[in-house]
Amino acid sequence: MSNVEVERSIEAILMVVDEPLNEVVLAQVLEQPVEVVEAALAVLETSYEDRGFSLRKINGGWRFYSNPNYSAVVEKFVLDGQQSRLTQAALETLAVIAYRQPVSRARVSAIRGVNVEAVMKTLVTRGLVEESGLEHETGAILYKTTSYFLERLGLNALADLPALAPYLPDLEGLDEILDSLTD
To answer: Quick one: pLDDT at residue 28?
Structure first.
């Protein structure tokens, strides 16, 4: 395999990866010595210096990244152009999970007062919610929010979620609401 073929092969592989790949993995896949792959990566890295993307070694592996100089354009595209919004039901279900996790689907349904099976599937598919074990008493699957959920909300940890107390009626207000419902 020529140097150009090694470089193009590396490009093709790195275009489809979800996580950075290290030189050893690339060398194994390409059946080339690690030194050849390292040299090709060095050539590729410098060849992308003045582009809209770059090849960088991060966390022990190589991957393509958008050029930081164009972060505003990329952010606008991601937030405006490709955003599919969650329904009100999905947002409510996500809020219940975020504040009560780990929580079973049955418990979320009980809190919301409706069947949440389809909404839960949507949240899992979108990577906002994941399984986190089994409830000991019932054997029900427990769900929790993902790191992607925190990333999308711009939070470092669940502790950064806003407190609910300011949005809940005080006990006197709750008594008045309950009284009005029974009249």
So the answer is: 95
